[in-house]
Design goal:
8-stranded mixed sheet; about 10% strand; binds pyridoxal-5'-phosphate; Aspartate Aminotransferase, domain 2; 12 helices; Aspartate Aminotransferase, domain 1; disordered C terminus; alpha/beta
Length: about 350
């Protein structure tokens, strides 16, 4: 078999469901997280409404998934410390926006955990269904009835090349999402609901299973690299990390920190020293031509992050010498304190 939930995709789903402690029906393998998000939104969105509330501070795939599901993105500012949306920020939106919201998409920034209980309560209070975009959150994701989408892209901590999965503790919802990513089919060849082809191929599932076998070792590598930077940065006391502290319980495959603006200047200086960096989320989705027309709140914290978030080199073969060189170059260009123009202050040094 090449696809259509063959034995390898089914085995991957079973192992992931077991890991999360949920019924296998609640674990749906998908071709990529973008399609998983779009299918989930198509399933959970409140009929007769056209907006999806989401952060602008995310990868453009989140907003593309909203468009694919037939909704319009409405960008809400993130909390400057967690880099994520808060229930309070959504509940404070004008009534005419909340009334038009079909759904909300909460993004776990760079693999950071999202508290599903808080969003479950938000859903109950507001009536707005929620999906969690935990694309980079393989290690931090916890099962809940709020559907959560994880990416298995090559850039993620558990890579399968492409691929992803949707996890929910609600098996009925899992079945419905499976139908959405399988042409609207449910046990027959009849398209009962609007659907798409979002199935995970057997080839990708094979790589995913191999990655899963190696997970304990690769998790150790990500953790060691994060601690390696953390140790050096603590000494230099320059910045606050999106990834939390060395004591954090989860790993991710990027190392993103807030440097004093403008980030582009620091990136150029590092580049001149032979060190490549990434502005993973560019200037925020609302600055991308595809989404410039979308509605939004004031995005002061997002603008600030866009000017300060920098991804350092972070890959399994990174050596201690590489990290020494990166941090030595970085501290030449950043001061001990920082305050971005929008007024949000990031703790420097004291990251307790
Ligand atoms: C926040 C976020 N959402 C969605 C995606 C899309 O994931 P995929 O490449 O599996 O479609 C990514 C990918 O990097 C991401 O970072």
């Amino acid at each position: 078999m090449y696809s259509n939930f063959g034995p390898l995709a089914t085995e991957l789903e079973r192992r992931l469901a077991e890991r999360l402690g949920i019924d296998a029906q609640g674990l749906v393998s998908v071709a990529n997280a973008t399609v998983g998000l779009a299918a989930t939104l198509s399933e959970i969105g409140r009929p007769g409404r056209n907006l999806c509330l989401l952060p602008s501070w995310t990868f453009c795939a989140s907003a593309h998934a909203v468009l694919q599901s037939g909704l319009q993105p409405f960008f809400v500012d993130v909390d400057p410390l967690t880099w994520q949306l808060s229930p309070a920020a959504l509940l404070a939106l004008p009534a005419e926006v909340l009334d038009r919201a079909a759904a909300a998409m909460i993004v776990g920034a760079f693999g950071a955990p999202v508290n599903p209980l808080a969003w479950d309560s938000f859903g109950a209070r507001s009536g707005i269904p929620v999906v969690i975009d935990a694309a980079a959150g393989f290690d931090s994701v916890v099962a809940s009835t709020v559907p959560t989408v994880v990416s298995l892209h090559a850039t993620k901590s558990l890579p399968a090349g492409e691929g992803g999965f949707v996890a929910t503790a609600d098996p009925e919802l899992g079945r419905a999402i499976r139908q959405r990513i399988n042409f609207g089919f449910a046990g027959s060849r009849t398209a009962e609901v609007a659907g798409m082809n979002g199935k995970l191929s057997e080839y990708t599932a094979a790589v995913g299973l191999a990655s899963l076998d190696r997970w304990p070792a690769s998790r150790g590598t990500w953790s060691r690299l994060r601690d390696g930077y953390d140790k050096r940065m603590r000494y230099a006391r320059p910045v606050w990390f999106s990834g939390g502290t060395a004591q954090q319980a989860w790993v991710t495959a990027t190392f993103v920190l807030a440097v004093p603006a403008p980030v582009t200047t620091i990136a150029e200086e590092l580049k001149a020293a032979g060190i490549d960096t990434r502005r993973w989320w560019q200037a925020g989705c609302h600055r991308e031509p595809a989404f410039e027309h979308c509605g939004r709140t004031d995005l002061a914290a997002t603008e600030c992050l866009a000017e300060s978030a920098l991804g350092l080199p972070f890959f399994p073969d990174l050596t201690e010498a590489h990290m020494d060189a990166v941090v030595a170059e970085l501290v030449k260009h950043i001061g001990p304190d920082q305050q971005c123009e929008a007024g949000a202050v990031y703790p420097s040094g004291d990251r307790s």
